[in-house]
Protein 1
Amino acid sequence: MEQTRKMQRTIIGYIPAESPMYALHPVARLILFLATGLLPLFIEAPEYNVLFIIIIFFMLKYSHVNLSRLKIFLPMMITVGIIINLTYFFFPINTEEGLIIFSIGRFNAHFHSFMWAMSIYIRIIALLLASIFYFSTNRERDILVGFRTLGFPFIVSYFFGLILRSAGIFLEDYAIIREAEQARGLDVRNLSFGGKVKHFSMYLVPLFTLSIRKCEDISIGLFSKGTELSGKVDGKKRPDYLKHKMKLQRTDKWIIATIIAASLAVVYFDLVVDSFSLENAWLYRTLRHTWFNL
Amino acid sequence: MANVGSVWQLQEGEVRKPGLAHFVMMALFAGIGVVVGTFGSLAVPLGYVTAFWPGQAIQSVGSIWYGAWGGIAGFIFPIISNMISGSAPLPVSLAYIPGNLAQSIIAGWAFRQFKADPRLKSAKDWIIFTVWGIIVSNILGAGWGSFVLKWFGLIAPGAHLTVFIGWFVGNSIASWVLGVVMLKFISPIVIRTKTFCKGYWA
């Protein structure tokens, strides 16, 4: 029988119960996210970003993330692809080359425009997968430890923590409201677009009413605990249990250094050597040669 | 004598100061924005040129109720909701900040400047919300947003105007419907709370 991977519900999604990624310090994971969330912007060549996507999938698998949970992002990824390709089909760029792949009526699919749309689409998917990977392998507390280790002020990390916690609370409230409606026989799938918009707006009334009550509760709780939103308590540096518990190891430092070095190398090869431009891409040149013998 | 009819007017002896409750409400409000923005994007997945993004209503209404606190929440929550829903990558979300900030503060400024009632009681209130909270906010938001998309190459330069119009019309309708529901039904409760801001910070 196939072993199903155990996932844990976090306030912002699901993460694996056990993962090799957890051996890394949260700041190393945060820097990995920042690098993977930016590097595709320096790469136009589709093959490199496809390689990047494959690596992210490998990392998701290696990190024991349940890949079936990614289905929720599929409609988004398909519609984004359609929108990008349609805009570059109806409003083509670099048409002076005159390389036309096919025509529909008076509209022509120009080769460069098509390749650029594909390059941008693959880049966006790579960036989105980098975000999905980070939120699929990090708890809210990991994000906060990452922030604090990087030296963000206490009030900033506390604010983000409170946002994430409240988002989690309201996601649960939202689910309860939906379940209550479904229990009364409402099937939102049968609603028209206008009906969905109108229906969605009705969720906001109970959500806000709950938030006002929770704000009162949390404020009173923080006040009664004497919480101060600063990095110092009684003139001394605020003790940080989580940060103290999760110490940067030598391996983490090496990984961080490697990520930074690899990122700088990509930036150098893009800006100085122009290694990742679309026109120099293997796929671009191969398709151009195959379709137009150029 | 104080004008007891205006929700923005301080009553005699009333003292309002920014405090912990405002900070908490800002975070909770951003949390709601994350939920609404995420589910709005996932429910109608049109990606980064979403024609249905209910988050804009949260932004406008946030600054009307919570002044600058709502304004701050309004430009922060889209970054998180975009990452969770996968509707825009981090660099694009960061580039959206000026547009989101504009969408988050204009309605709050207009309601205070022109003394409109958040409960939408008179024709003037409706007009101010529609003109400033929806039309002006979305012109700036859609203008900046479509510029960002062009800047990142996510749309063809020739499609800029088409995307701008689609974004503006789609977002305006969705945020008007949601904004009206929130203001009509929730404002009467919010204005009685201590976190409601008569000024910009308290």
Protein 2
Amino acid sequence: MATIYQNLQTLISRQEKLNFNFSLFVQENITRSWWLTLWLLILTFITIRVTISQLVAAPVITAVVLIIWLLSIGMVVLNEVTRQHTNISLWLKENLYNSITNTQLTLILTLLIIAGLRAFYAYAWVNASFETDPEIAAQLEFTGANWGAVIANMRNLMVFRFPKEETWRIWASLALIIVLGIPSVYIYQQQKYRRSKIRSALTFLWILSPIIIFFLLRGINEENPLLPQVNPDVAWGGLMLTIIISIFAIVVSFPLGVLLALGRRSKIRGIPAWLTWTVALGFTVWGLIYSTPPNLAAARSTSEELLSYWPLAIPIVAFLFQRYFNGNVVAAFSTIYIEVVRGVPLITVLFMAIILFPIFLPPGMQILNTWRVLAGFALFSAAYLAENVRGGLQAIPKGQYEAADSLGLTTFQKYRLIILPQALRIVIPAIVGQFIGLFKDTSLVAIVGLFDLLNVANTIAAQPQWLGVRREAYIFIAVIYYIGSAVMTGYSRRLEARLGVGER
Amino acid sequence: MADLSPQLPKTRSTTIPFWRDIRVLGVLAQIAFVIVAVMGITWVVRNTLANLDELGESQFICRDGTSSFRCAYDFMRLDAQFDIAETPIPYEPSDSYWRALGVAAVNTLKVTVLGVILATVLGTLAGIARLSSNWLVSNLAKWYVDLMRNTPLLLQLFFLYFSVILVLPPIKEAIQPFNLPIFFSQRGINIPAPVFMPSFAVWLAFVVLGIIQAQVLWIILGRQEELTGKSSNRFRWALVSFLLVVGIGWYVSGSLTSTQAIMTPKSLRVREFKDLQKIMLNRLKLADLGDIELALSNGTLTQEDIDAAAFRICAQKESASEVNLTSQLRNANIPYTVKRSTRLDQATEAYANGECEILVASQSLLAAEREALEDGANHVILPIAETPVRISIPNLEGLNFVGGAKLTPEFAAILIGLVLYTGGFIAEIVRAGIQAVPKGQSEAARALGLSESQRLRLIVLPQALRVIIPPITSQYLNLAKNSTLAQAIAFPDLWTVSYTTINQSGRAIQIMLIVMGSYLSLSLIISALLNWYNRRIALVER
Amino acid sequence: MDKLETAEDIIICRNVHKWYGDFHALKGINLTVKKGEVIVIIGPSGSGKSTFIRTINRLEEHQEGEIIVDGILLSHDVRNIAEIRREVGMVFQQFNLFPHLTVLENVTLAPIHVRKWSRDHAEEVAMKWLTRVGIPEQAHKYPGQLSGGQQQRVAIARALAMEPKIMLFDEPTSALDPEMIKEVLDVMRDLARSGYTILAVTHEMGFAREVADRVIFFDGGQIVEQNTPDQFFTNPKHERTKLFLSQILHH
């Protein structure tokens, strides 16, 4: 207000003519072209409609907004005309009132956002119930959110059916991670610990920690008095399962992905063409002699007759193999694996894991659904990780390979000491991004019947005492997912910035 | 030059033990890899065969009762015996599994194609909004993008389906935003839809003709420009001539090829379409049909009067001729009611019984129906005007919407969910793409005196597209793959129906091969299309 | 066991050919280098001079002819390749230091992992070489923190730490700013005088005149002319050599 008053004074006290031409202003901002005028008319109409409807719905707040809007426009215009912008008015001018369209949009959006926030506030707080006892909650009359259902189910959402008396094992796992994590932040950053024993000890403990946590969470065997075994299919669930799956998938897929990426890029001499063709033609002839005639005899339709000549496809495969991979089986295998897995939906991979793993394994061998899903996620994630790592490998200049060669390093040493450390460092942000994707994709296990965070949220609506309470649970877990992803995104951004300006 | 060709003991140069020969080592590694891979595959195959043995030979049963690998897919010809909620092509539970999967594949394609188009539009808008100079707009867009990117798609789908669409009001109280002809209810979303008349084909021919002649004119004017060196504004001329041809085509195809007609009793005394209006004026005792609203409000007429006076029309369900007639009546403010029958002969029967005054259908069919009537001579057939396309608007009649297009709750949820989710990712790609164009490019364009639209169209967009296309390709692929999440809300897409088929037939391996093959092909087609497009714009760039 | 007794000749190339697809990059190179000899190779770009010195430690594979380094035949035998690479140090135009390792780690890497020295011994030797090239105080910095000239000197120290018998220089000063060229050339001069066998591809004519025992002129994948620096620069025999020299000396 003070600035406006000062400006008014300057405006009045100033003798020289202000260089503001009204007709020029109109011509530039309103009548420049017919469609601009039309657009402004439509927008004005909408603005008025929205304002009136909001005035009806919430008179006081809308009136206040309207007054603030008008006053701030007045201030900006005044400061603009007198050319005496303060920081605030400059910001307002540049970000909210820089054109007639934006000025109106500012009002419309402010009103709509306020209306939305009011509605959400009413739903989530004013009219909401926080009563965790379903019987009391049933007596209450409320129209908003039933947070009591979420609060009452908090343990389910976090760990689902993990035995209550064993809860300490989850706390112990968390404690282990925190105890290792806090010094890591410091030690891995500091140059002076680069070759220290502390750092290697810490690394060793980190490598050991999954095994410890596995035994903590699953137990050792049934008789063990301290860590009795639990059945992961039943006992693992909620946020805990979500985190286990995503971490397991990224950790296991890491070596697989690196191998696949190296395989896809490998330039080792392939199987020579003459050998490929000899084998391929041999199989073709063998197939044509021993497989085709009986099949042809048994064929019931033209398509089956055609299929009987399947050995003729072998030379085509051999040709493609030589043409695209120069006889390099490793590259062919890696490329096909990566592309096939990336080409099919995750849910089909999970289904394969659940239904087809048992068929592929020796008869009678039983594996828990949880292990199948974990394996499915790891195999799926490996293909994507391989592509990320390949991107990193491509970014390493040829000179690095040559320098390593010229020093006499072996191929294994070259990759372990020179290429992979650099390539992996480049792709850390991409891998964090992939981890976020996995964290979200874990929700798909709901479809194959495991109880991750999302599926537990679904079960709340089926509980007789909280029948039909869905929206609240969804909002709550959305917040968990949002925070988890946003924190990791932020971390990867910072990492990217640091790697960008760092050593390269 | 003796020192340049020293004598070497030849014997030592050629003997390299094969385990140290770099050429052999590579091949050996390859062969070792092949052996390991073959052993692994053999192990899996042997286990599979053993497991299948345990499952019994029913997996590969032939029609004649024997069992053979050749018959692995024979079961696909059996009756599917399950219902599919949404059938874009005709399907009955007595159709084969093949047919069921075909229907499901069309559903998947429908979701994917619509999803890709809408997500691109939404993503582009949100991406531009992210760059808006209005702080509120850009921050709202940012919140939208963050929300979409940081929560799982499946959660969004559940929320959308269970907590938004299924809790919409019942159909009687359908929400109609801004009085637009769009209706949201528990039973889905009803939107206006175009209905194509038979003459649409003729009009389409005119459109093609228009494109050809505009192109010809474009080339001719271009040559002239080169000769004279004067700008002839060829874009405008081409557009005008195109619109001219298309406009003429609209009237010609409508009036010349009209195939639709109404049948009325002679007693109604209808000679031409305008007579309907006169009759209605007489019935309501009004001077102008536009006064109905006025008469209703000042009490000269009651709703009962109007309902009694309204023309009663008989028509076949979902026929183009009905849409044609009713939209003309609506335009003329003539009140009407429609009685729809599944088949035309049922409609004719109703008409013959006096349940309605007007029967609408195509001319030839009406002629045939009149032959069938006992008192055929007492009825006249009157051709009605036809436009190539009519917009059919949903209208609540009883407990259902009639006309327009209907999105079922499941389809609406999966489509909206995929569009919102993918749109968030595309927005980021578009924003990054536009920001990747160096500022100098825009400055150079302004310095050359290009207008804002020219700057965007000719300078910024082509360069941004080159950055945008590769990542957007992978988003389209993700959308296609994510459409399988439809299973969670029971929309019958390819995966959902395949899943049902597996459960019903027990043939997991066979169906999984088909499913994975289909999605792989879909992925390959999408990336091939976009790679082709990418190469094209890359060439333009050079 | 594969050592071939050839007295003083440390590198022997006989009729070396190389093709890149259809392009014939090396057309029968014959060259013998004596122990301790300093050879400067010059020639227009694309003449095959870089390709040639890269065939000597198998960064490029030659397809015909024979190369014998320190009595070891350069063949498809992995053991021979490894042995030769241990005896041949190389310095690149783009330095090719390992950016994720400190200067000291760059220099000690190969001695520790290839020569199997203890870390302490390797670091001791590395510091000796870093002192010799004049940058012992930079040992714990990363390559990205050094200037181009310093980086190239680290690269030389890295090659020398393996105690090679032969040093290959592939245009070591071409990527450097003029004021940094001198510091690198000083190190190279120093090496040339202390008895290393050196093959250097370079455009530094002053360096060639001063320390080279022999100057070789490459063109079109062939050795066109070779001579002592005095003779070569003052009295070139071949037309192409004269043309090339006039172009670079007038420049």
